């Protein structure tokens, strides 16, 4: 009887859930694969913290190396913090050619290329289906639903926290800050919400999805996001008046010549687009495949249970393939282009003193910079200032900077600039 | 080297596509499974029709029995017509314990219980993943995405034709008939569209999905649908004024004690529900799982390519399991209940001569039958008749009949009755 010791790096909510799944499936693994699987050591930062898993105290250690040395397969459940340390543990496992199952998307997003390169050199197994999708098993869906076809484009709402905040703003009239506070109270946002709010969490997911769906590696150092917090409730209202909604979108596309185009940030989207009705903590991802056309997947974006369950599936896959080398992902692709490929139009909200000639002034600035105004709506006066909403054609960021600068010199406040997503 | 002859019943668009997939994957099957797979005989109604598959004339036959006798595995690609003959062929295959891959959902919906029972008795293999989903590989998604959890409820738009028609009515102002004509011109509706329009196609899919998702067999003889054609464009407009859309919905739920509740027909759905934004020939199905919560899948609802591809996957599964007996579906469940489980409210549109006392008359009829009116909207007069829209609580069909009868006696025309879907 073959024996396999599974080591755990981390025993938080995901690690504990995974330990329980492993324990309750021992019999099944024995019957199906003739393998006696057991949990070996588990690395924890605090030995005396109460755990939700049935693991004897003797198996806990605060020395990660003990886990690496003791185990045949290592499951990384380290969560979001200590990214570099997590990467180092994973690298050491690979160097020892011990299969690794990962859950940290940030580690893949930051160090994925090095990790995968090392796996290919060492011919060691690595799986990270659990790094993306939460309640929606996206990695599995990609493998099962797009067999033999190319995914060229994707649009999605990938961050549950920001979507919850936007939904509360839109539907309950909360300010961004009020909505964030509410999300924190409900556990949809962390105490330090910056990774979610600033779009990094969504960006990590884009990078992992680019690997799974497009077999492309893109370099996070060349990427940036637009913070989701730049939106005011009044923008939501004005967008609605135009037949649009503002959503925290991630859009990415693999073009010819290994060009990868993306955008992560707030976007105006037609109110009758399917993503416009995805609210609260729900996520959606719509892929465009060469044969299937558009295929969309919708579900709750987070949860320790689905993550642990995805890790367990990865573990079983490693058992089934009898430790064979297997890594067909990855196709170097690090050219990143302008997001204007997705959009023809920009929404601007500026405010200006309510004096004669104010609209002429604004329109002149756009005209001088060869920007076409498609629509102007003068809104109500608040404290002597007028909100003016303009829709223009999409322009390069250098032109945006020029216009913004000129507005500043003329006492026009530029409050919001958001692109439209044209599907 | 093991040899496998695959026989084809039918060589229409799906059969031809499948033949091509089989031919182009011979090498792969040889390498992976050590099996020499080849297409044996193919049953066609017309020997001399031009086919889109590279199959020598000598392999064609207009005698289905030749296919059954000659083949090791049989693929049924008979399409919608000749349901009873198709069933007979399938039954004969099973009696010979030859594995069958099916594509006809109607045959499963009508005769599934007998077919499955026979498979269990004969310990013969049967697969029918291709019977449902079109572009969305629903059977695979259910197997992969809901491992070890119960699906209790589902709501979806399962018929592309009716959804295309409703979208054209809503967005382009076409009448039902105009929209149907347009759908036929574009190939989204058949020359005889009755199976789609009357909801039978969606009902067959409900029955197959109940098998896959809920492991339940429900008897079509105890079921009925509401025709999608009962909707007028003015209903769409009134629904929109109320913040709703009218959609061709299929809703089903497995309750305790093997009770299966369902409804197939037009429904009012909140305009911010995800299904409300699923338009044209797109389908959606949102399942509710015990662990995952709501998981939705969205894509184009039809296509010979995805169907053939699903059949090929089934074929490979049969090869992989080395002809083992495998049929864990099916859990007798044929009690069907009132759809009022999904709805608290009904939409009524009646019209009446524009005379004094007309509203009192209408309201009295409802009051007399103990039906609560939640909202009344008197619409414009057209040719001396007033449209009146009422929202009431949901009532039993016998009460609906009573009210309708009484309205008739009082010269009130009942134009439309549609339930709201309360998610």
From TrEMBL, chains A, B:
Residues 137-316 form the Homoserine dehydrogenase catalytic domain. Residues 10-127 form the Aspartate/homoserine dehydrogenase NAD-binding domain. GO terms for biological process: methionine biosynthetic process; threonine biosynthetic process. One of its GO terms (molecular function) is NADP binding. InterPro entries: ACT-like_dom_sf, Asp/hSer_DH_NAD-bd, HDH_cat, HDH_CS, NAD(P)-bd_dom_sf. The keyword Methyltransferase does not apply. It catalyses: L-homoserine + NADP(+) = L-aspartate 4-semialdehyde + NADPH + H(+). Keywords: Amino-acid biosynthesis, Methionine biosynthesis, NADP, Oxidoreductase, Sodium, Threonine biosynthesis. SUPFAM superfamilies: ACT-like, Glyceraldehyde-3-phosphate dehydrogenase-like, C-terminal domain, NAD(P)-binding Rossmann-fold domains. Its EC number is 1.1.1.3. Pathway: Amino-acid biosynthesis; L-threonine biosynthesis; L-threonine from L-aspartate: step 3/5; Amino-acid biosynthesis; L-methionine biosynthesis via de novo pathway; L-homoserine from L-aspartate: step 3/3. NCBIfam families: PRK06349.1. Belongs to the homoserine dehydrogenase family. This is Homoserine dehydrogenase. It comes from Pseudobacteroides cellulosolvens ATCC 35603 = DSM 2933. The lineage of its organism: Bacteria, Bacillati, Bacillota, Clostridia, Eubacteriales.
């Amino acid at each position: 009887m073959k024996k396999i010791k599974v080591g755990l790096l981390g025993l938080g909510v995901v690690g504990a859930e995974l330990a329980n799944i492993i324990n309750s499936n021992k019999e099944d693994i024995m019957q199906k694969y003739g393998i006696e699987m057991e949990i070996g050591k588990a690395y924890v930062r605090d030995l005396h913290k109460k755990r939700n898993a049935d693991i004897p105290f003797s198996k806990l250690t605060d020395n990660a190396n003990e886990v690496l040395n003791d185990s045949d397969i290592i499951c990384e459940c380290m969560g979001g913090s200590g990214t570099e340390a997590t990467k180092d543990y994973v690298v050491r496992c690979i160097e020892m050619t011990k299969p690794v199952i990962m859950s940290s998307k940030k580690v893949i997003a930051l160090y994925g290329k090095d990790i995968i390169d090392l796996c290919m050199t060492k011919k060691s197994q690595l799986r990270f289906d659990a790094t993306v999708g939460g309640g929606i098993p996206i990695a599995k869906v990609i493998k099962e639903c797009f067999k033999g076809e190319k995914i060229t484009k994707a649009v999605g709402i990938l961050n549950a926290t920001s979507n919850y905040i936007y939904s509360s703003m839109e539907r309950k009239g909360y300010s961004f800050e009020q909505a964030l506070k509410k999300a924190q109270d409900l556990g949809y946002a962390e105490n330090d919400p910056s990774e979610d709010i600033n779009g990094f969490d969504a960006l990590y997911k884009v990078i992992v999805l680019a690997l799974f769906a497009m077999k492309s590696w893109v370099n996070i150092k060349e990427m940036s996001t637009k913070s989701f917090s730049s939106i005011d409730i009044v923008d939501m209202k004005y967008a609605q008046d135009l037949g649009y909604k503002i959503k925290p979108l991630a859009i990415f596309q693999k073009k010819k010549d290994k060009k990868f185009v993306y955008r992560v940030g707030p976007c105006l989207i037609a109110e009758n687009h399917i993503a416009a009705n995805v609210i609260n903590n729900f996520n959606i991802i719509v892929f465009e495949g060469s044969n299937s056309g558009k295929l969309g997947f919708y579900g709750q974006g987070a949860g320790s249970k689905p993550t642990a369950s995805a890790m367990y599936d990865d573990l079983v896959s490693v058992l089934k393939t009898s430790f064979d080398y297997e890594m067909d992902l990855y196709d170097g692709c690090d050219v990143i282009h302008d997001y204007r490929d997705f959009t023809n139009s920009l929404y601007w909200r500026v405010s200006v003193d309510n004096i004669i000639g104010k609209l002429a002034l604004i329109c002149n600035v756009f005209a001088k910079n060869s920007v076409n105004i498609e629509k102007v709506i003068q809104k109500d006066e608040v404290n002597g200032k007028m909100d003016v909403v303009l829709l223009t054609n999409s322009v390069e960021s250098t032109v945006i900077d020029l216009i913004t600068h000129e507005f500043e010199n003329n006492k026009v406040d530029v409050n919001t600039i958001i692109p439209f997503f044209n599907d």
